[in-house]
Amino acid sequence: MKLTVVAIVLAGLVLGVLVGVVGTGGAFLIPVLVYIFKMGQLRAQGTALLIAAFPVWFFPFLPYYKAGQFDLRTAVLLSLGIALGGYLGAVLAQHLPQEFVRKAFAVGLMGLAVRMFLTR
Q1: Could you tell me where the DSSP H helices lie in 36-71?
Q2: pLDDT tens digits along 2-34
Q3: What is the pTM of this model?
Q4: Burial class (CB in 10 A: 0-12, 13-18, 19+), 51
């Protein structure tokens, strides 16, 4: 299925609202790329990472900035670890079966979802 520019922008708009409300992108973006855009898991993850490289997350951050709801020190230090770990994980993912990567992503999301649901 070939999606039009309008359909892609509308999907981005819906994803943007979800990003602004819950503060995450990949948890929503990757399933949309896999199931609506019909990408393979690794291509979806690569596309999501490319989108994250653009300054698009700056705009949903602005209301949190205005409300003082962020920790700069943690963000900077965590970003350093994410940069290194993310690179190493991406290299590893290129050598794993795509089905394994997809299932690992799903299991990780389910585990986080259950924990968030069961705790205050």
Answers
A1: 41-53, 58-66
A2: 788 988 899 889 888 888 887 777 788 999 999
A3: 0.79
A4: middle
